[in-house]
Amino acid sequence: MAFFKGYWADNPANDQEKFVVACLDTKHRVQCVVIVTVGTLDASLVHPREVFKPAFIEGSSAVVLSHNHPSGNTTPSREDHEVTNRLTEAGKLLGITVLDHIIHGDGTGDVLSIRECC
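-> structure tokens emitted (118 positions)
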């Protein structure tokens, strides 16, 4: 959570949802962060192909997902839970663990872990 708090502070999303993936090595150190998609004010389309492609390229063993909420409210939506579950299942098939999905509230600096909260 601390990593993504800093990431979003350094890379503001400018009133659009951005979905990013952090690729991690076997010791869960960040190898890279890749922007997967840029959406609209309140939506972002995410497909497993784009999420896991950077992890394959880096030879990652795990990923952490993150996206921002332009509203500043970090409460996960039904769609946030669905995409987390879908990507977690896809990761299991691919041998890449989805450790967490972090939501950042624009303008507030708040971050929320879907794994910890829900």
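The chain has a mean pLDDT of 93.
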